[in-house]
TrEMBL record:
Hemimethylated DNA-binding domain location: 116-220
Protein species of origin: Chlorella sorokiniana (Freshwater green alga)
Biased composition (Low complexity): 1-13, 27-37
Taxonomic placement: Eukaryota, Viridiplantae, Chlorophyta, core chlorophytes, Trebouxiophyceae
Region (Disordered): 1-60
Matching InterPro entries: Clp_protease_adapter_ClpF (IPR053189), Hemimethylated_DNA-bd_dom (IPR011722), Hemimethylated_DNA-bd_sf (IPR036623)
Protein name per its UniProtKB record: UvrB uvrC motif-containing
Amino acid sequence: MAARALASHRAPAPSRPDPALLRRRSPAAAPVSRGARQPTAASSCGSGAHPSEQQQELQETLQSLHDRIESYKAQLLVYVHHEDFGRAAAARDALMPLQLRARQLQLAAERHRNGAVLHAIGTVIRHRRYGYRGVIAGHDPRCQAEEAWIQQMRVDMLPGGREQPFYSVLVDERDRPGGQTTYVAQENIICVRKPNEVEHPLIPQLFVGFSPEEAAYIPGPSLRARYPAEF
């Protein structure tokens, strides 16, 4: 058990988009045995597979997204040519979140090659060990929690230890009531394929919408300002 201990509880980490917004208490979770692997998502996340397999999955997802973008662009040109401006506007509006997601995935692919932060802001995830769902609202290149918390959560006993990226996660209230946030090691992040929306009181303040097709939330101005390199 100790070898698979996870830092999954709230910590005062500087990755938080707004510390005042994310100030919630998360009770310690009882240890549970590791379950079966969860399915991966068509997003910036990997499945816990070998890094080369994760990179291939990411590239395939990015290519699929680019194909959809080109299809919408072609439709847009046809609608404009025929002066069907209503459909042209709809196609344009559909393009915007796809182009944003493509940009995020491209950056994620670059981070993956560099062994850095893999998962984008807004990605819907499931905790590998405890199974709860959530959405990523922040990240750090390494664990930024206080030393006492690191020792309490046995972070250094994780295979990746404290030097791996850590993520601030808004936890779905259907899994853990009370508007909790957690601080999760990268190795314990699993993406959710075709997820439902996450229920958390901070989501309307941090995100401007949800894209079911991309299995992700669209970050709002505060998150874009805090993580400009991701957009």
